[in-house]
Predict the structure.
Amino acid sequence: DTGVSQNPRHKITKRGQNVTFRCDPISEHNRLYWYRQTLGQGPEFLTYFQNEAQLEKSRLLSDRFSAERPKGSFSTLEIQRTEQGDSAMYLCASSPTTVGTGELFFGEGSRLTVL
Amino acid sequence: ILNVEQSPQSLHVQEGDSTNFTCSFPSSNFYALHWYRWETAKSPEALFVMTLNGDEKKKGRISATLNTKEGYSYLYIKGSQPEDSATYLCAFLGNTPLVFGKGTRLSVIA
């Protein structure tokens, strides 16, 4: 399967723990996006990368959230000191274009539950 | 704050009915309007990417129109089938990465 892959698919953690999600985009896609979706809402933009450069990170929800894409391939999203409000679906998407109008290819998401 | 509004929030139709949804978005700084279908336990998949005012696109029984001057797009499904049951998301591309609406959840009853 050569689609966008996200791991883990489900994560249950206790409040205060750190969690990390991984996203493997479609190879040769140079743009990678992270979104968060909570119940009843549409996907909410968090951050994105052009190759290894993080072009926008002001939308990360707090300084507990960080993302990396060290070699311009896979990306990780880390949440430190998780809170119950962090419970959500975290979606990764990639795009082959630098122009920005092209469609996004999404993974199946990583669902986080914080107890 | 960009506002992308979708209506209705949810919809239940009988198999064979035709239906349509609305997406409204800012009419300024427009680059593109995307439609995605998101089935339960799957990943969102792009249906259409529309960039020009007056665009009409079609994929099988599903079609979409775009009015960038007044800031709205319609998605039409002709002869709904149970496999069309999903959440339909529209997303606006302006000066920022895609901003999504809350979606319209469609249930097609056989």
About this structure: The first strand of chain B starts at residue 5 and ends at 7. The interface with chain A takes residues 4, 6, 31-32, 34, 36, 41-46, 49, 51, 89, 91, 93, 96-103 of chain B (CB under 8 Å). Chain B is about 0% helix and 55% strand. The CA atoms of residues 60 and 78 of chain B lie 9 Å apart.
